[in-house]
Automatic annotation (TrEMBL):
One Gene Ontology cellular component: microtubule cytoskeleton
Coiled coil: 27-94, 270-304
Pfam families in alphabetical order: Tektin (PF03148)
Family statement drawn from the similarity comment of this UniProt entry: Belongs to the tektin family.
Protein's organism: Silurus meridionalis
InterPro entries: Tektin-like (IPR048256), Tektins (IPR000435)
Keywords: Cell projection, Cilium, Coiled coil, Cytoplasm, Cytoskeleton, Flagellum
Keyword Iron belongs to the record: no
UniProt protein name: Tektin
Amino acid sequence: MSQLLKAPPKFLPSEWKYVNHVLFRSAEAEQESSERLTAECKRLIEETEKSVRRMQQEAKNQLEQRIKDVKFWRQELEQKLHEMVQEIELLLTVKNRVERSLASCSEPLQVTLDCLNERQKRVAIDLVDDEVEKELLKEKDVIEGVMTLLQRTLEQVTEQIRLSRSAKYYLEKDLRDKFQAERIDDFCSLLSSTTESADYPSGVGQNTDIGLAVTPEEWETFSDVNITQAEKERSSSSSLRALVENLLVQTAADMRRQHETTGSALALRIQETRNAKAELEDQLFKLLEEIASQEQNLDALKRAVADKELPLKVAQMRLQTRSQRPRVELCNDHAHTRLLSEVQQLTDHISRLKDGLSESEMAIRALTRSQLLLEEEIQIKSNSLYIDEVICTQLRQPITIHDF
């Protein structure tokens, strides 16, 4: 058993010293290496700390500059949006005025059409294409032209409102993005290494590549385009409003002028018809007097004929009685000649009186026909006066052309 267990080898003193020296030198080398590593790490820590602070400060400066840029464009967008909102409100007011002006044309047009229809009820010679008729037709054309122009203008205003609202939409959208970007950058500028992780908003680091293809120049151009487009629409809207202002004034003036012209023509025509009716009535009065006089003349002629018939019968009776004288006494004496002359003259008188009687009757019939014609014409004039003076005047009286 003792033979199986061998004693450990023995080393020489020189070997012992060498091994100790090697271990010492190895430990010393490791210590120096560790010290150099510690110094390098300390330098690296200080360097990285300075670099981090510098980078954070530079990032903060860039963020603050970015915030200033965003704020500048946001203010520009807010100013332009404010102007667009005001312009749209003004344009909506103008649109309302155009709509009211267009609606106000319906009543005058209907009155004009009613007057034209009513004046078609004039009869006989009074159904004339007079100045009133011409002015009413012209008034109809003026009102219809104004309505067409206002309708086209209303469509233009509506389209301009749509374009202005579109520009306003893009301004608002850009402004919302700018506001959000400013809020995010402002938050980022306040972040530091001491910020608690709980203070970071959710979703940080997500979708970081969205929009990174946009260069700063393109970013500025985007807002500049929105502002330029908005300014263009605001300028167009302002020009359109000025045009509409002039249009409303001009159309109202045209309608008012034509309304007054037609009214003057109607008043003149009423006066002419009234004068003609008065002349006809005066002539009818004289004609009735003449008929009465002629009837008196007819009665006088009838009495004259009746008065002449008895003397004629007496003369004829004398001639007939004297024709019974016997023989030589049946002489053509002066008495016989006188009786013959008397019968002849009385017959002639009666014949002429009857001719006068016939002419008087014919004159009365002619005067009666004239009376009927005059009365009919007076009735025609009365009808025309009623249409023009009562119906048309009352229809037109409430009409007032307003400025909207």
